[in-house]
Amino acid sequence: MHFRPDSATMRTTVAAIVIFTALTAYYVYIPLPNTVSEPWKLMLLDATFRGVQDMCHLVQQLGLGHHLKVLNFVITAFDMLAPQSSEIVKVTDTTFDGVQVRVFEPKRKLSRELRRSIIYIHGGGWALGSARMRAYDHLCRKMANVMNAVLVSIEYRLVPEAHFPEQINDVYSATRYFLQPEILSQYSVDPNRIAISGDSAGGNLAAAACQQLVMDRTVTTRLKLQALIYPVLQAFDFNTPSYQQNMATPILYKQVMARFWLEYLNGDPRFVQAMLVNNHTASDQSQLTSIRDRLNWTTLLPQSFRKNFKPVVQIMGSPQVIKELPALLDSRAAPLIADKKILQLLPRAYILTCELDILRDDGIMYAKRLEDAGIEVTLDHYEDGFHGAMIFALPPTNFVVGNKIMNNYINWLDKNL
Fold first, then answer.
1. How far apart (Å, rounded) are the C-alpha atoms in residues 121 and 136?
2. How many angstroms separate the CA atoms of 150 and 153, rounded?
3. pLDDT (0 to 100) of residue 37
4. Contact between 151 and 104 (Cβ < 8 Å)
5. Full DSSP string of 300-332
6. Who's near 9: CB < 8 A, 6+ residues apart?
């Protein structure tokens, strides 16, 4: 006997499928600029990330764990790689001054006595990611092989177990340890050809560590280059042109970035709304005048990036935010606000920015401040780039722009280090 569903059952099934499809399309679809080369792939990636984030917030509301810790588990659980060496690269997990690092050493015979080296710091809002993730393992292996260089990838502590300044302290401790002459000798590294680099929050930590190094007279080895990939560099102004333009552009949203900052600085999550409208840096707070001058995007950004956007400066604000979170004005947390006399001491810089990124202007303003301080800067801008693009260079989330960014970044380092 064959079961034949009646017409009512069929209509119900079809209606359910249509509703489910419509809801899925509504959740996935986001209007994107026509410069995005693979829009549906980006929409699907963003929808997946938003869905996982929503699930993690639910887990926290149920009292089952901090949402960022759960999110990091979901992201890394099936993506962590053991330190597996290959025929061309030796991979080792070790510790530098108590900080975990993964070291990549090329096995190729040296054409000269010493090798170049890059200290790399992964991104993830100071709360997500790992040097052991497939994406970063792949990046560092590729750099070690292509450049015949020693890569040191730092596994710094993350939110919620650690907050500012623990992350920058970890990065600085590991970097300072590696720069000791005897350690460089152990890895056959040329002390005159070392760079520090990182993406997103890793770019923040790389820039901050670089600034600390030039002020540390006990460190005799000086970095040759700093390479910052779509770095987050300030929490003073959440309404720069790129914040205004890309507030609803995947994959990093304005509100999410404000929340990352508050988690990093261990601040009250209720401060989010005040920060989003710049109430925390209102003009009635006279002690912020000098910092506001350093972040004046109307003079730091070219007209092509300023466009028709207007500054958002509140007359009366919420001084409680700065009072409770003085780290917002600490250059170790926000390297863009550093004094010019510090910037003048920094090494040559490569700064990569993406048009479809709320953090675009952080990088461009830092490039201008460095240039004004007499530092040579290469600004590499991608009209079709979005935040995080470089780590999406492997299947199934391999983007054309991600591979382009990665290859150009490595080529620049190869030519200039």
1. 9
2. 10
3. 84
4. yes
5. HS-HHHHTT------SS--HHHHHH-GGGG-TT
6. none
Say if CB 140 and CB 89 are below 8 A apart.
Answer: no
Residue 204 · residue 233 · CB < 8 Å: yes
Tell me the residue length of the chain: 417
Helix (H, G, I), strand (E, B) or coil at 118: strand
Going from the C-alpha of 267 to that of each of 171, 207, 280, the distances in angstroms are 22, 23, 13
Instruction: Give the whole-angstrom CA distance, residue 251 versus residue 238.
Output: 17
How far apart, in whole angstroms, are the C-alpha atoms of residue 163 and residue 267?
10
Short-list 388, 101, 416, 42, CA closest to 229: 388
Residue 174 dihedral angles phi and psi, to the nearest 5°: -65, -40
Rounded-to-integer distance, Cα 271 and Cα 259, Å: 9
Mean pLDDT score across all residues of the chain = 93
CB-CB neighbours of 95 under 10 Å = 11
Q: Is 375 helix (H, G, I), strand (E, B) or coil?
A: coil
d(CA 402, CA 369): 27
Q: Is the pLDDT of residue 159 over 80?
A: yes
DSSP H/E element including 59? helix 39-61
Q: Any idea which residues carry the catalytic annotation?
A: 200, 357, 387
> Tens of pLDDT along 315-352?
988 899 999 999 999 999 999 999 999 999 999 999 99
**In this structure, are residues 177 and 96 in contact, taking their beta carbons and an 8 Å threshold?**
yes
- What distance in Å separates the CA atoms of residue 107 and residue 118, rounded to the nearest whole number? 16
| Residue 238 burial (C-beta neighbours within 10 Å; 0-12, 13-18, 19+) | buried
